[in-house]
Amino acid sequence: MMNPTLETCVTNCPPASVPDYLPADALRALQLRRLQAVVTRAWSQVLPFRARMDECGLTPEGIRSLEDIAKLPFTQKSDLRDNYPFGLFASPMKEIVRLHASSGTTGKPIVVAYTKQDIDVWTSVLGRALAGCGLHRGDIIQVAYGYGLFTGGLGAHYGAEGLGATVVPASGGHADRQIMLMKDFGVTAMCCTPTYFLHLIDVAAEMGVDMKELPIRAGVFGAEPWTDAMRAHIEKMSGIEAFDIYGLSEIIGPGVGCECRRHQGLHIFEDHFYPEVVDPETGATLPEGELGELVLTTLSKQAMPMIRYRTHDITRLLPGRCACGRTLRRIDRIGRRSDDMLIIRGVNVFPSQVETALLTVDGALPHFQIILTRSQGLDQMEVQVEVTPNMFNDKIGALQELHGKLQHALDRVLGIRVKVTLVEAHTIERSEGKAKRVIDRRTA
Ligand SMILES: [Zn+2]
C-alpha cells in the first residue's frame, strides 16, 4: 500500500520532490549503492584518497553496509588546501563545467568542481529545499547572495529557476536598490544571509517602506550560523516566515539541507548527502540525538567526491519522523562551529550565545561585534551592541538601565564577565555577506 503522504505528494508536489518521501528502507538501499559507487570512483580516480585508503588497509570492496562508512578515513579542509587547485578532482577537466572557490582567511582559496550532472543534482536539491519552504512556480525569488566564485548566488539561482520560479538575480550590495526591486517587482521570497536581511529591514524603514506591506512572505537564509532568537526578531520586524538553509561549497554549496514549514530541524537531502555526527575529539560515531560534529559524504558527486568531510559544524541528528511526512532525516539548527569557539579566560564562548543573550533584552538591536584584546596577559572581551535610535534621545537613566540588563543577560549566558558598550544604531559596519562578529586584537 502506498504511503498516503507519498501518494499526496506524487499528485501534488513537483516531481523533483518525490525522493523526499522515499520509504526508509528504499532510501537506505539507494544510499548504500551510491556510497559503494562513490568510494570506488574516489579510490580509482583520486590519488590522495587512494593513498589514505591504502594506509587503512581498505579497498572499496570493504564497504558492504552503510555502517562500514565508519571505516573510511576523514577528509579535512586542509586536504583541499594541500591539493590546491585540482588535486582532488575525480573527473578530467573536459567533463567539468563549473569551478567555484571560497576565499580562505589565509593563503590560497579552496577550489570545488562540478560536472553537468553535479550541477543538475545541485539544482534539484535546491529546488526541493525551496519547495519545502512552500515556494513554487509563480513565486518571484530575489537572490541577494553574492554571484561569483562563492556558491551562494549561482546555487540559489539555479535552484529557484529549476523550481520554475521567477529569479531576480540581484546579487549582494546596494541595499536601497534591493528594496526597490522587492517593492516594484512584487518579490515574494528572498535568499541571502540572515544578517544581510536584518540590514535590509533597517534600510527599508529608512526609505519609508514597510516590509509588512510588501508581497514578500518567505526568507531562505543561510551561509552563517543564526539563532531562533534572531528568527523571531526577523519575523516580527518583517512579517515574513524565515527558513534556515544549510550547505557548504566542499559538499555542493547551499542545499545540503533545509527546514520545512514545521521548522523542527533541517532535512538533509540524504539521497545525495550522507550525514554522520562524530565526537569532535575522538572521531567516534555518535548515536542519534547526541551533539557532535557533522560529517558529510557526497553520495552522487562526480567531479569532486567528498568522503567523510569534517564540517566543524556542531549539531545532532534528530530522532523520529518530521510531521511534514518527509522521510529524510533532520539535523538540529547549527548554532555554532567548533572553530568559532572563543576561549576567554578558560571559558568557551560562542558568538551565537551572545546573539541569543542580546535578543532577550528590549531596546538592543541584533547588530553586535565582539572585540578581543589582551591586557596584562589576560583576555578581555568587549561586546559592542547597537541600541534603538530613540534610546540615545531618552534620559540617561534609560541607557543605564538597558546597559545593566544587557550586562546581566550576557553574564548569565556566558558565565564570565565581559565589557558591554552601547553604541548608536548604524555604528557597526554592515556586511554584504557573512557578518564579521569577532575582531581579534590580541597579539600573541
Ligand atoms: Zn519536515
Structure description:
The chain has helices spanning 4-12, 24-45, 47-55, 77-82, 116-132, 151-163, 175-185, 194-206, 228-238, 351-358, 396-414, and strands spanning 96-102, 110-115, 140-143, 166-168, 189-192, 218-221, 241-248, 253-259, 266-268, 273-278, 292-298, 309-315, 317-318, 330-331, 336-337, 342-344, 347-349, 364-375, 378-387, 419-424, 438-440. It is of the alpha/beta class and 444 residues long. The longest helix is centred in the N-terminal third of the chain and has 22 residues, at 24-45. Helix 2 (24-45) crosses helix 3 (47-55), helix 5 crosses helix 6 (151-163) and helix 10 packs across helix 11. It has 2 domains: 93-338, ANL, N-terminal domain (Rossmann fold, 3-Layer(aba) Sandwich), CATH 3.40.50; 347-440, ANL, C-terminal domain (GMP Synthetase, Chain A, domain 3, 2-Layer Sandwich). The chain is globular and about 75 Å long. The model is unreliable at 1-12 (pLDDT under 50). The protein binds zinc ion. The site of zinc ion (ZN) has 6 residues, from loops. Zinc ion binds at residues 260, 262, 267, 322, 324, 326.
Indicate the topology:
Blueprint (H helix, E strand, L loop, with lengths): L3 H9 L11 H22 L1 H9 L21 H6 L13 E7 L7 E6 H17 L7 E4 L7 H13 L2 E3 L6 H11 L3 E4 L1 H13 L11 E4 L6 H11 L2 E8 L4 E7 L6 E3 L4 E6 L13 E7 L10 E7 L1 E2 L11 E2 L4 E2 L4 E3 L2 E3 L1 H8 L5 E12 L2 E10 L8 H19 L4 E6 L13 E3 L4
Bound molecules: zinc ion.
The site of zinc ion (ZN) has 6 residues, from loops.
